[in-house]
Design a protein that fits this description.
InterPro entries: HXXEE (IPR025671)
Shape: globular
Number of strands: 0
Protein name: Membrane protein
Keywords: Membrane, Transmembrane, Transmembrane helix
Oligomer: single chain
């Protein structure tokens, strides 16, 4: 468990590279809908690597900047909760639609989450930090958004989505964000956890000088 807790984001990048090679070798034979959902899965894996490994200081931003935590290395987000939440998001919320490409609402929800990430990373977090970048934004701009637009264009052009798909997909996205991101972080917080983020994962937001501002 300690190995997975430390390296889950690195293993995710390896999976992303493997899926990328699979798509490059077989794109002409892979149905477009399935291929786009695989690309969406790659996007979330790259996103998570960017947040937690390189540059990797999302935990510090989350705990230190947003929650003004006195112990940003531990609370409210910690390595255990981050691992659980992100593995569920990637390998359930994003990966399951790949195996059911005809269930359009199932694929729409992750696409909507990718768009939502721009609001969080591109606007909300940047305004608070007074920056133009924070870990996760690169994947949002260069992967989530273009892949999501491509997916929506594809399903609309081919008349694949019904009104029910749009409604259920939107509701599923909202529920997933609430349970996995909003409530998940609160349910799994632990002030007495023995698992701490590294100085790299805290960045400037773990410094005493920042916390005193």
């Amino acid at each position: 468990m300690d190995f997975l807790r430390k390296y889950w984001q690195d293993l995710g990048l390896i999976v992303a590279v493997g899926v990328g090679i699979y798509l490059l070798n077989g794109w002409g034979t892979i149905p477009t809908t399935e291929g786009l959902l695989w690309l969406s899965f790659i996007a979330i894996l790259v996103h998570q690597f960017e947040e937690y490994r390189w540059p990797g200081y999302f935990p510090g931003l989350f705990n230190g900047l947003i929650f003004k935590s006195d112990h940003p290395e531990l609370y409210p987000l910690n390595p255990q909760s981050a691992m659980i939440i992100n593995l569920v998001i990637a390998y359930v919320f994003y990966l399951v639609p790949v195996f059911f490409p005809s269930v359009v609402w199932l694929g729409l929800a992750p696409v909507f989450m990718g768009f939502f990430q721009f609001i969080w990373h591109g606007i909300f977090a940047n305004r608070l930090a007074k920056t133009i970048y924070n870990p996760g934004l690169f994947a949002v701009v260069f992967l989530h958004i273009p892949i999501g637009v491509w997916y929506i264009q594809h399903i609309v052009t081919n008349n694949m989505a019904t009104a029910v798909d749009w409604i259920v997909g939107t509701l599923y996205f909202i529920v997933a964000v609430y349970i996995l991101i909003v409530k998940g972080n609160m349910w799994l917080k632990n002030e007495n956890t023995r698992h701490a983020f590294s100085p790299q994962q805290l960045g400037m937001f773990g410094r005493t000088s920042f916390l005193k501002k």
